[in-house]
Amino acid sequence: RVTMRRNTLRCVNGVCSEELAKCWQRAALCLETMELQVLDHPLVEHKLTILRDKNTSSSTFRELVTELVTLEAYEATRNIAVVDKPIETPVAPMIGKAIAKPRPIIVPVLRAGLGMLDGMTRMLPSAEVGFLGMKRDEENPTQQITYANRLPDDLTGRQCFLIDPMLATGGTLVAATHYLADRGAKDVTAVCIIAAPEGIKYVEENIDPSIDFKVVVCGVDEGLNDKSYIVPGLGDAGDRLYGVI
Ligand code: URA
């Protein structure tokens, strides 16, 4: 399911920017069934442009990632489970809503995903946080190496939010989603900042269809270069957040 009707209409009316229109064209070309949400907001485009700029400092980069993720979290949590919660306002009793148990879990993929954690936890302070250390095998970019994990053994019934800024080849996202699914997760939302059409296609074709899976991104770029970096992208997200190590 492509959630793009509203955006397409806005583009037809000439309201959205040329870049956003291109973004949507790329998403539409590579997507058939997966649910992908591209944030369509001028503020997101503005912040993303500063983020991409190679002259932006690490501290500004980190701040912008937090702000963008906060905006993405609003969409990513649209279907979060809630229950009735009776309260009393100073004026009258009422039935409000509270996030249901078991608590949702946020899983940053180390290392770059850590840069998105603050934005997610600001919006979902009651969520638990797990960690998954996965990186692509540079010799073989679609293969993944898992080098760390700190996750509950049982994720049955948990809504999981995987955070990783760059959806490049899609290999890490598929491996990480299946890692959570192997522990019982059936509801996984990936929050990324930039995606490549190749990665979206790979994810769509390789994620176990029994998982309720969705991706939220701020932009869909042109494609990957021969080193599997997103073009134009923003470079190495981990290095830009934390420096070259
Ligand atoms: N990971 C990054 O940090 N950047 C890319 O462009 C692709 C993968």
UniProtKB/TrEMBL annotation:
Mechanisms controlling activity: Allosterically activated by GTP.
Binding residues annotated for uracil, in chain numbering: 230, 235-237
Cofactor annotation remark: Binds 1 Mg(2+) ion per subunit. The magnesium is bound as Mg-PRPP.
CC cofactor: Mg(2+)
InterPro entries to which the protein is assigned, alphabetical: PRTase-like (IPR029057), PRTase_dom (IPR000836), Upp_B (IPR034332), UPRT (IPR005765), UPRTase/APRTase (IPR050054)
Catalytic reaction annotation: UMP + diphosphate = 5-phospho-alpha-D-ribose 1-diphosphate + uracil
EC numbers on record: 2.4.2.9
Keyword Cell wall biogenesis/degradation: no
GO annotation terms (biological process): UMP salvage; uracil salvage
One Gene Ontology cellular component: cytoplasm
GO MF term set: GTP binding; magnesium ion binding; uracil phosphoribosyltransferase activity
Keywords: Allosteric enzyme, Glycosyltransferase, GTP-binding, Magnesium, Nucleotide-binding, Transferase
Ranges for domain Phosphoribosyltransferase: 38-243
Positions annotated to bind 5-phospho-alpha-D-ribose 1-diphosphate: 111, 136, 164-172, 236
Top-level taxonomic group: Bacteria
Role of this protein: Catalyzes the conversion of uracil and 5-phospho-alpha-D-ribose 1-diphosphate (PRPP) to UMP and diphosphate.
Family: Belongs to the UPRTase family.
Protein name per its UniProtKB record: Uracil phosphoribosyltransferase
Natural source organism: Bifidobacterium gallicum DSM 20093 = LMG 11596
